[in-house]
Amino acid sequence: MPLIRVPIGVEAMRRLRFKLGTLMIVVLLMGGVLGWGVEMRRRSANYRGQMLYHRQEELRCHRDVARIFACGAWVGFTPEENRAILMEFAKPWRERAQYHRRMKEKYGRAAGHPWERVEPDPPEPEAE
C-alpha cells in the first residue's frame, strides 16, 4: 500500500472540527463585541463634541464678562461702587460660564468613559 502524503494543514483541520451551531455562536459573540466597540466609539465622539461646545460657550461668557468690566465705569460713583455695579451686571454671564464649565467637565469624563450613564443636563441659567 503506497503512502499518501497529507499536507500538514489538512491534518490539523481533521482534528479541529466545529459544529455549525458552535461557529454561529462564535460569530454572534464576535459581532456583539465589535458592535459594542463601535457604539462606545460613537458615544465617545458625541460626548467629545458636546464637551468642545461647552468649552467654547464658557470662553464666550468669560469674554463677555471681560468686556463688561473693560467698558464699565459710571461717572459719579466711587471705584468700589462701580465695581459692585459691574459685578451685579455681570452676574448672569458668570453663572452661565460656571454652568458651561460644569457641563464641559461632565462631558469630558463621559468621553473617557462612554459605557457609564450620563445624567440629564440641568437647565441653563437665563441671561438677563
- Strand-and-helix sequence, N→C? HHH
Number of strands: 0
Helix content: over 70%
The description of the largest β-sheet is: none
Count up the helices.
3
What distance lies between the first and last C-alpha atoms, to the nearest angstrom? 99 Å
C-alpha-based Rg, rounded: 31 Å
**pLDDT average, as an integer?**
86
- Which structural category do the helix and sheet elements fall into? mainly alpha
Shape by Cα distribution? rod-shaped
Beta-strand content bin:
under 5%
- Identify low-pLDDT runs: none
Question: Outline of this structure?
Answer:
The chain is an all-alpha fold. The chain has helices spanning 8-15, 20-71, 79-112.
Give an overview in words:
The protein is mainly α and 128 residues long. It has a domain at 40-128. Helix content is 73%, strand content 0%. The longest helix is centred in the middle third of the chain and has 52 residues, at 20-71.
Describe the SSE topology.
Elements: H1 8-15, H2 20-71, H3 79-112
Helix pairs in contact: 2-3
